[in-house]
Amino acid sequence: MMRRMISILVVAVGFGFGGFESAVLAEKTQAIENGMEVTMEYTLTTLPDNTVADSTEGQEPLSYVHGTNQIIPGLEKALAGMKPGEKKQITVPADQAYGPYEEKNKVTVPKERVPENVKVGSVLRAREGGQAVRVVEVNDKTVVIDTNHPLAGKDLRFDVKIVDVQPASKSGKESGESKKPQAKE
C-alpha cells in the first residue's frame, strides 16, 4: 500500500513539474505583440549602398515597448509575432521609415546664428536638444541647413535578433520615449 502511494505521489509530482516547466517555457517563448517589452540586437543598413548606419554590436541591445510608436512603423509591423532567439532580415521602404527626402526642409539662416567655424558637412544641434541638422551650404552671409532626418528618403534593411519578449512594466508602457535607431552622425 505504501509503495502504491509513493508511486502515485511521484506521478503527481512529475505532472506538476512538467506543467511548471511548460509554463516557464511558454513564458520564455512569448511572441511580440502590442504591450510587450522587446529586447533586440540589430544592424541597420541603408539601401542600395549597403552602408551600415547603426548597430547594437558591441553595445547593449535595444529595448522598446511594442505598439507604442517607439520605433519606425515598418520595422514594428515586421517584428510582430517574432519570438526570442529568432533572426530575420527586414527591408523597410522609406515611406515606412523616416519618410521621403523633402527639398523644402532645407532652410537658409543668417550666418551669425551658427557657430563661427561651421563648414559643409557640419552637424548642428539646437540648444534645447532638438534633432541634429546638417550644414549643406555656406555663403558669405547665410548658411543652408538640411532639417531632413539623415535617413529620410532611404530604404532600410534591418538584420535583427530577438533577445527577449515579456510583458512591459508599467513605467515602460508609459515612457513613450523614442528609441528609434539613429543614423551615425
Descriptive account of the structure:
This protein has 185 residues and is of the alpha+beta class. The chain has a domain at 103-146: Beta Barrel (Thrombin, subunit H). The chain is 22% helix and 31% strand. It contains three helices and nine strands; from the N terminus they run αβββαββββββα. It has helices at residues 2-28, 73-79, 170-175, and strands at residues 36-47, 51-55, 62-65, 87-92, 106-110, 123-124, 133-138, 142-146, 155-167. The strands form two sheets. Strands 1, 2, 3, 4 and 9 form a five-stranded antiparallel beta sheet that branches. Strand 6 and strand 7 form a beta hairpin.
Biggest sheet descriptor: 5 strands, antiparallel
Question: CA-to-CA gap between the ends?
Answer: 77 Å
Based on CA atoms alone, the radius of gyration comes out at 24 Å
- The CATH class of the domain at 103-146 is identified as Mainly Beta
Q: Helical element count?
A: 3
Helical fraction equals: 10-25%
**Residue share in β-strands:** 25-35%
CATH architectural label of the domain at 103-146: Beta Barrel
